[in-house]
């Protein structure tokens, strides 16, 4: 035993060096492209700074934050985020789940449907935005013309403060349900046939099998899909910026849009940094809390494997 | 055919360069061919005709005269230009020559020491700029850019629709204007096209009303004291609200952009609205985004407000000029001098790409719509730069945003004045 020890220590050292060599490039990039901007963002958020002429000098402490927390637009942003998250959870994700389960059935043209439903996700945000601006245009849009044929009054979609958020949600759903659908579909296919069969033999009807077997086994997939959906909504920008620029009258503004307004239109980079810090903290708190309390079981497998190897 | 012309031009250029080189050698005692070649970056937004070729030709001619200077033509689309310039400036550098709209943005850049003070250089040039043209680039008695274009905002109207609604002549006062809007509505015509999403078209109404009610001095004073709570500004908001309450705008205007297929310009260009308040570029966008209404299009200055201090010969507008980076070589100014010399600038005016910025250049305008604008510009008794350019960017955007809220009905006239004042004080 004693003879082996030093050798194993050396081997362990070599192992650590190997690990280091492998993670170093990624670590360097991570520090440069992720950590540094976060730190710089924190730093500039403490200054009144228009972004011009070298480093910020006008230190204002937490003024940018007190101003932010006193701004009704900020609370509007938070409210819009909450609304979109809730709508996503109760409409978009169940819809994606339903379609995924349908497409799991033996169905003529199944592959075709999968491609069709996934296609919007592949489109760029900008193209999606322009597409829907044309479709939902109050004066010349396709949607209102179809409504007209059925004899209904056309809606103002993005041009009305009361419908703009729902219209945006429509676009978001169209764009992203494909991703969640594919996630659910792969999750569903990972469930062994025999489990389902066993449940059926035990006399479970379709609903019972779904409720008691399929759904619980899809748990990990659903939890990760909710996670992606919420984080995506907190950072929602491209679609909103192109379609409404946050309007009319801030009715569809999100945190990222407000940040862009202040950073790149008003050149109040310090204040914009404060908004980005708040966005970062929101995402961070949610991500940590969610992983700690909701996804713990899903992650346990992964971490224990690592621990055993150690 | 095209290539023949091009080859001929190339030959001519080569000959010209050869000729100049020889002449330079004689003057300087054999210097110019071995003097170091200077490259000047020229950032502009001329991505469309006619200005695109005007600049290309000017650069060719200039380089022919100055073989040791190379002008690198960097033409970037308007919005992309703004973000690219911002990013460059934030890294502490400025291009040698760059397009500017003057006002608060240019002042911030000048304060950061990124822009050259060109006051003395311009004074020694033979060409004389009009006061309106150079005003946007002057702060504290110093000039920070060379004007190249100027224009003004006014009301473009559809003569046929006015006739249909029984309006004899363009309204000259605010109450006549309101009357005209009511008549148009009664005739089933959308009185005004507005791009509510873009916000800046809406701010023209508030700006003009403030100018007409409080006079140019009120705006000047507000910019200095950072106080916009003067009754004139609140009254401007009330008058605008009076207009908004008549619901004069096209359906879905709050979501409309300016130059898209269902935007403000297209609505006007397709004859679906009777008026729009817009700058001198309106006719060309009307016919590119929509069909264009040809001879039916007319122009009149923003009406005067009864009892107000301003007159309707005072114009809101802006232009385009070229600023020089603080560290640019002196050859940059040499090029700008060439570009704005009367013979050269006339070519730009004749092309219809810009309006006169030099004294006595008005006769070069050919397009009848632009000639109309040039005529009004020449007769202006006062000039105010667009507020979203004149003020620091944050204040300018606040004007746009809060006026947009007023138009959407979520803000009061008092609220607008208060919001702008708060932002101005925080700058």
Tell me about this structure.
The complex is a heterodimer of chains A (310) and B (427). Chain A is mainly α. Chain A has two domains: 1-39; 74-267, MetI-like (MetI-like fold, Orthogonal Bundle), CATH 1.10.3720. Chain A is built from 13 helices and two strands. Chain A has helices at residues 4-44, 63-69, 72-104, 110-122, 125-135, 142-149, 164-189, 193-201, 206-234, 238-243, 255-265, 269-293, 296-309, and strands at 47-48, 58-59. In chain A, strands 1-2 form a two-stranded antiparallel sheet. The longest helix of chain A has 41 residues, at 4-44. Chain A is flat, with a radius of gyration of 25 Å. Chain B is an alpha/beta fold. In chain B, 49% of the residues lie in helices and 13% in strands. Chain B has helices at residues 2-28, 51-65, 78-90, 103-111, 119-123, 131-134, 159-164, 174-186, 200-225, 231-244, 264-269, 282-289, 331-339, 342-350, 368-378, 387-390, 393-408, 413-426, and strands at 38-44, 69-75, 97-100, 138-139, 142-143, 146-152, 154-158, 275-278, 297-300, 314-324, 382-385. In chain B, α9 (200-225) packs antiparallel against α10 (231-244), α9 (200-225) packs across α17 and α10 crosses α18 (413-426).
Summarize the structure.
The complex is a heterodimer of chains A (about 300) and B (about 425). Helices cover about 75% and strands about 0% of the residues of chain A.
Give the CATH topology of the largest domain in chain A. Answer: MetI-like fold
Low-confidence stretches of chain B: 7-34
- Number of domains as seen in the coordinates of chain A: 2
Radius of gyration of chain B: 23 Å
Radius of gyration of chain A: 25 Å
Average pLDDT of chain A works out at: 88
CATH topology name of the largest domain in chain B: D-Maltodextrin-Binding Protein, domain 2
The percent of residues in helical segments of chain B reads 40-55%
- Report the count of strand segments of chain A: 2
């Amino acid at each position: 035993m004693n003879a082996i020890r030093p050798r194993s220590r050396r081997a362990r050292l070599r192992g650590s060096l190997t690990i280091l060599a492998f993670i170093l490039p990624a670590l360097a990039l991570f520090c440069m492209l992720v950590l540094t901007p976060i730190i710089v963002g924190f730093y500039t958020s403490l200054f009144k700074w228009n972004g011009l002429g070298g480093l910020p000098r006008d230190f204002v402490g937490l003024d940018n934050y007190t101003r932010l927390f006193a701004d009704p637009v900020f609370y509007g942003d938070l409210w819009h985020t909450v609304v979109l998250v809730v709508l996503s959870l109760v409409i978009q994700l169940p819809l994606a789940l339903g379609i995924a389960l349908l497409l799991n059935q033996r169905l003529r043209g199944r592959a075709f449907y999968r491609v069709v439903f996934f296609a919007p996700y592949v489109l760029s945000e900008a193209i999606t935005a322009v597409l829907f601006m044309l479709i939902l245009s109050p004066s010349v849009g396709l949607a209102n013309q179809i409504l007209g044929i059925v004899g209904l009054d056309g809606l103002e979609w993005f041009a009305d403060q009361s419908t703009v958020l729902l219209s945006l949600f429509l676009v978001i759903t169209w764009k992203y349900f494909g991703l969640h659908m594919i996630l659910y579909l792969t999750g569903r296919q990972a469930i062994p046939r025999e489990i389902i069969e066993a449940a059926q033999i035990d006399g479970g009807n379709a609903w019972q099998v779904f409720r008691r077997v399929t759904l619980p086994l899809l748990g990990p997939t659903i939890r990760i899909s909710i996670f992606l959906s919420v984080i995506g909504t907190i950072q929602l920008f491209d679609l909103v910026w192109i379609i409404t620029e946050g309007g009319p009258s801030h009715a569809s503004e999100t945190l990222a849009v407000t940040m862009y307004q202040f950073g790149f239109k008003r050149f109040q980079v310090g204040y914009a940094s404060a908004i980005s810090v708040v966005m970062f903290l929101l995402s961070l708190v949610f991500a940590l809390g969610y992983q700690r309390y909701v996804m713990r079981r899903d992650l346990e497998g992964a971490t224990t494997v690592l621990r055993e190897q150690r | 055919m095209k290539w023949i012309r091009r080859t001929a031009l190339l030959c001519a250029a080569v000959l010209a360069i050869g000729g100049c080189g020889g002449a330079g050698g004689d003057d300087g005692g054999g210097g110019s061919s071995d003097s170091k070649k200077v490259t000047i970056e020229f950032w502009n937004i001329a991505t469309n005709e006619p200005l695109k070729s005007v600049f290309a030709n000017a650069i060719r001619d200039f380089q022919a005269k100055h073989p040791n200077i190379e002008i690198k033509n960097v033409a970037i689309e308007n919005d992309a230009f703004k973000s690219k310039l911002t990013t460059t400036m934030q890294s502490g550098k400025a291009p040698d020559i760059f397009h500017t709209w003057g006002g608060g943005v240019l002042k911030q850049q000048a304060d950061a020491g990124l822009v050259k003070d060109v006051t003395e250089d311009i004074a020694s040039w033979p060409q004389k700029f009009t006061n309106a043209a150079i005003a946007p680039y002057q702060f504290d008695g110093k000039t920070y850019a060379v004007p190249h274009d100027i224009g003004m905002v006014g009301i473009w109207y559809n003569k046929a629709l006015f006739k249909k609604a029984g309006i004899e002549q363009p309204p000259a006062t605010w109450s006549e204007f309101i009357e005209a809007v009511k008549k148009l509505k009664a005739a089933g015509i959308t009185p005004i096209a507005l791009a509510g999403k873009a916000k800046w078209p809406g701010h023209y109404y508030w700006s003009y009303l403030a100018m007409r009610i409080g006079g140019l001095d009120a705006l000047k004073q507000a910019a200095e004291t950072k106080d916009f709570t003067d009754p004139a500004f609140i009254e401007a908001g009330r008058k605008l609200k009076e207009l908004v309450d008549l619901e004069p705008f096209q359906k879905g205007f709050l979501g409309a952009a300016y130059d898209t297929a269902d935007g403000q310009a297209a609505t006007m260009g397709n004859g679906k609205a009777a008026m729009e308040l817009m700058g001198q570029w309106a006719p060309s966008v009307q016919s590119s985004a929509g069909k264009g209404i040809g001879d039916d299009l007319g122009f009149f200055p923003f009406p005067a407000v009864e009892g107000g201090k301003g007159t309707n010969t005072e114009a809101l507008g802006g232009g385009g000029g070229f600023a020089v980076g603080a560290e640019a070589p002196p050859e940059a100014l040499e090029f700008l001098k060439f570009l704005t010399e009367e013979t050269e600038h006339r070519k730009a005016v004749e092309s219809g790409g810009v309006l006169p910025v030099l004294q006595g250049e008005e006769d070069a305008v050919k397009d009848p719509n632009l000639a109309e604008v040039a005529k009004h510009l020449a007769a202006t008794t006062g000039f105010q730069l667009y507020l979203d350019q004149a003020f620091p960017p944050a204040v300018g955007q606040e004007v746009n945003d809060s006026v947009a809220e007023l138009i959407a009905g979520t803000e009061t006239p008092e609220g607008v004045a208060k919001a702008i004042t708060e932002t101005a004080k925080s700058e």
